[in-house]
TrEMBL record:
InterPro entries on file: DUF4248 (IPR025342)
Protein name, per record: DUF4248 domain-containing protein
Domain of life from the UniProt record: Bacteria
Amino acid sequence: MNNKENLFIIRTYTKAELAHLYNPTVCIKVALQILRRWILFNLPLLHELEAEGYRARNRLLSPKQVATIVQYLGEP
């Protein structure tokens, strides 16, 4: 398998897109619920995201927010 296919790129993602990358075996709705729980229960992650302008209702995640999530949760 080509390693370039597995590279995760830090860029703007929709929350649903990123959630599905972390949980590809479940439907989008469930993947979003899982990602939301991971963020809510990881208080340092939540506080850092909020400092970067994150709000629970946002549909888009900035590259900086995505990088922060990856820093705490690892690459999808």
